[in-house]
Design brief:
With 151 residues, this protein is of the alpha/beta class. The chain contains five helices and five strands. The longest helix is centred in the C-terminal third of the chain and has 16 residues. The chain binds 1,3,4-trihydroxy-5-OXO-cyclohexanecarboxylic acid. 1,3,4-trihydroxy-5-OXO-cyclohexanecarboxylic acid binds next to loops.
C-alpha cells in the first residue's frame, strides 16, 4: 500500500484552540490536534500536511495548491463555513474528495452556524465529536481513497 497525501486545513481562530471558549472547543491545542492527525496518518498510511490560517485568501491558495499535490482534503473552515462562497468555489474547482469537520455540534448552537457552504460539497460532515472528529475524518478519507485506488 502506498502513501496518499491529505491536506488537513484549519480556518480562522483555530490557532487559539485550547484557550478559546474551552467549554465549547475543549482544552486541546491546535498542536495537539496536529499530533492526533499525524498519529492517525501513520496508522492509515496517509501523509499529513497540517495547516491553519486566519486569512480566507490563504486558505483558498492552499486549496488551489492541493489540486496537484494532494489526494484528499479534511477541512475545518471554522467561521468561513457559514460565510464563504469563495472557499466553496475553490473546493468545487479542485475536484478532490473533501471531508468537513467541526469540533462542536454546529446544529446545537446559534442558527447562523447551522448552514455551511461546504457541507453540500463534502463527501462527509463530522461535527460534535470534539477533536476526535479529525481522526474519524482521516479514517473515512483513507477508505474513500482506497476505494478510488488512490492509495
Ligand atoms: C467550528 C464551528 C464554527 O461555527 C466556528 O466558527 C468555529 C469552529 C468548530 O470546529 O466547531 O470557529 O468550525
Amino acid at each position: 500500500m502506498s502513501f496518499a497525501s491529505v491536506l488537513v486545513l484549519n480556518g480562522p481562530n483555530l490557532n487559539l484552540l485550547g484557550t478559546r471558549q474551552p467549554a465549547i472547543y475543549g482544552s486541546e491545542t491546535l498542536a495537539d490536534v496536529e499530533q492526533l492527525c499525524r498519529q492517525a496518518g501513520k496508522r492509515l498510511n496517509l501523509a499529513i500536511d497540517f495547516r491553519q490560517s486566519n486569512a480566507e485568501h490563504q486558505l483558498i491558495d492552499w486549496l488551489h495548491e492541493a489540486r496537484t499535490t494532494m489526494q484528499g482534503i479534511v477541512i475545518n473552515p471554522a467561521a468561513y463555513s457559514h460565510t464563504s462562497v469563495a472557499i466553496a468555489d475553490a473546493i468545487i474547482a479542485i475536484e478532490k474528495p473533501v471531508i468537513e469537520v467541526h469540533i462542536s455540534n454546529i446544529h446545537r448552537r446559534e442558527a447562523f452556524r447551522h448552514h455551511s457552504y461546504v457541507s453540500a460539497l463534502a463527501e462527509a460532515v463530522i461535527c460534535g465529536c470534539g477533536t476526535q472528529g479529525y481522526v474519524l475524518a482521516l479514517e473515512r478519507m483513507a477508505t474513500i481513497l482506497n476505494a478510488r485506488n488512490l492509495k
